[in-house]
Write a structure and sequence with these properties.
274 residues, DUF1295 domain-containing protein, mainly alpha
C-alpha cells in the first residue's frame, strides 16, 4: 500500500489483533471469577490503549517519529481515561442490565455465551476501530494539515467527553438529584455529550491516517463503525431505551438534541411546574 511498508503493516495488524484478544480474554477470566461481566466496559478503553502501545513499539524505524508518537499517545490517553472512569463508576455495582438481559437469553453455558457475544465481539470491534492508529504509526510522512485538524478534533472530543462524564458524576453524587434527569451543563446541549466526544475522537484519529487516498479508504471503516455503534448500536439507542420510562425523560428528549450539540429549547410549562 502506498506510503506504508506492507510487511510492517501485516506485523502491526496481527499483533494488534492478538493484543485486543489478550486483553479481552484476561478480562473474561476476571469477569467469570467475579461473576460480573460489566468490567468488559473498562477493558474496552484499556484494549485501545494496549493496541496503540504495541503498534507504537512495532512501528519503530518505520513511521515518522512525531506522527507515530502523537497518534499512539492520543489513543492511550483517551483509552486509559475512559477505562478508569468506567471502572470507578461501576465499582461495587451489580451486573449491567444490558449484559444481564443478554445472558438471560443464552442457551447453554452463560460464560461461553458471554465469551462469544460480549468479549470476542468487543475485541474484534477494537481491532477494526483502531485501524487508523495502526496505519498512522507506520506513515513516513511528517504531520500535516489533515493530522493537525484530526488532533484538534481529538482534543475537542476528549474535552467534551471528559467534561460530560465529570458533570454527570457530580450530579449523581448529590442525593438531592436522586430520580431526576441530568439536564445541566453539556447535558443541556446534547443528551449524549460523552458519545459525541467519542465521535469526535475517532473521526479525528481517522484524519491522522489520511495521508494518501489508499490509507484514507482502508481506514474509513473505523469512524463509520464507531459512529454506528454510538448512535445506532450499543450506545445512544440502548441507553435511551433504558431511560424511556424515567419521569421527565420524554420532556428532556423533546427539548434537547439527541446527539449533535445545539442550544437547548426552553422547558415546557409542565416541566417548569415540576
Amino acid at each position: 500500500m502506498s506510503s506504508v511498508d506492507t510487511g510492517a503493516l501485516a506485523t502491526v495488524l496481527v499483533a494488534s489483533a492478538g493484543t485486543a484478544l489478550t486483553v479481552m480474554l484476561v478480562t473474561f477470566a476476571v469477569g467469570t471469577v467475579k461473576g460480573v461481566h460489566r468490567i468488559v466496559d473498562s477493558a474496552w478503553g484499556l484494549a485501545f490503549a494496549s493496541v496503540a502501545a504495541v503498534a507504537w513499539i512495532l512501528s519503530a524505524g518505520q513511521g515518522d517519529p512525531a506522527r507515530r508518537t502523537v497518534v499512539a499517545l492520543a489513543t492511550v490517553v483517551w483509552g486509559l481515561r475512559l477505562a478508569v472512569h468506567i471502572a470507578r463508576r461501576g465499582r461495587g455495582q451489580a451486573e449491567d442490565p444490558r449484559y444481564a438481559r443478554m445472558l438471560a437469553r443464552a442457551r447453554g453455558n452463560q460464560n461461553v455465551y458471554a465469551l462469544r457475544s460480549i468479549y470476542l465481539l468487543q475485541g474484534s470491534l477494537v481491532w477494526l476501530v483502531s485501524l487508523p492508529v495502526q496505519f498512522a504509526v507506520l506513515l513516513p510522512q511528517p504531520l500535516d494539515a489533515a493530522a493537525a485538524l484530526g488532533l484538534a478534533l481529538w482534543a475537542a472530543g476528549l474535552f467534551f467527553e471528559a467534561l460530560g462524564d465529570h458533570q454527570l458524576a457530580r450530579f449523581n453524587a448529590d442525593p438531592s438529584n436522586r430520580g431526576r434527569i441530568m439536564d445541566r451543563g453539556l447535558w443541556a446541549w446534547t443528551r449524549h455529550p460523552n458519545y459525541f466526544g467519542d465521535f469526535l475522537v475517532w473521526w479525528g484519529l481517522y484524519l491522522t491516517a489520511c495521508v494518501t487516498w489508499q490509507t484514507a479508504a482502508a481506514t474509513l471503516v473505523s469512524p463509520l463503525l464507531m459512529s454506528a455503534l454510538l448512535i445506532k448500536g450499543s450506545g445512544k439507542r440502548l441507553l435511551e431505551a433504558h431511560m424511556a420510562d424515567r419521569p421527565g425523560y420524554a420532556d428532556y428528549q423533546a427539548r434537547t438534541s439527541g446527539f449533535l450539540p445545539r442550544p437547548p429549547r426552553p422547558p415546557s410549562p409542565a416541566d417548569r411546574q415540576g
